Amino acid sequence: EIVLTQSPATLSLSPGERATLSCRASQSVSNYLAWYQQKPGQAPRLLIYDASNRATGTPARFSGSGSGTDFTLTISSLEPEDFAVYYCQQRSNWPPITFGQGTRLEIK
Amino acid sequence: QLQLQESGPGLVKPSETLSLTCTVSGGSITSTSYYWGWIRQPPGKGLEWIGSIYSGGSTYYNPSLKSRVTISVDTSKNQFSLKLSSVTAADTAVYYCVSATACISANCLNWFDPWGQGTLVTVSS
Question: Binning pLDDT at 50, 70 and 90, where does residue B117 land?
Answer without folding.
Answer: very high
